[in-house]
Amino acid sequence: MSKYIIKVNGNPYEVEVQEVGGAASNAAAPAARMASKSAAPRAAKTAQPASGNTGEVIAPMPGTVLKVKAAAGDTVKKGQVLLILEAMKMENEIVSPIDGRVAALNVSAGQSVVAREVMAVIE
What is the pLDDT of residue 30? Predict the structure, then answer.
């Protein structure tokens, strides 16, 4: 698995990319990677933007909170799904950036959020 930092509209995102397939020839490999990249937006994805305060869970894009999977006071692990954000008809898993406790949960199911809004704080 490879890690990359990608900037979208000036906002840095850390992403992990795993190569799928196995016995593809070197000539077919770029085509296979292109096919997997074009299929990725249709699947649920996990995105967490980088922020100045590593315990803040920031909305990576405007959208609607579909489901909240953690509550204030819960202990969470880094990478654990905290909520599902629907944006552009895609479900995005928003994860905890660090191990800790949910100190504040600023959103609820059905609520709309704007890009860069603090949705939760982990301490």
Answer: 54
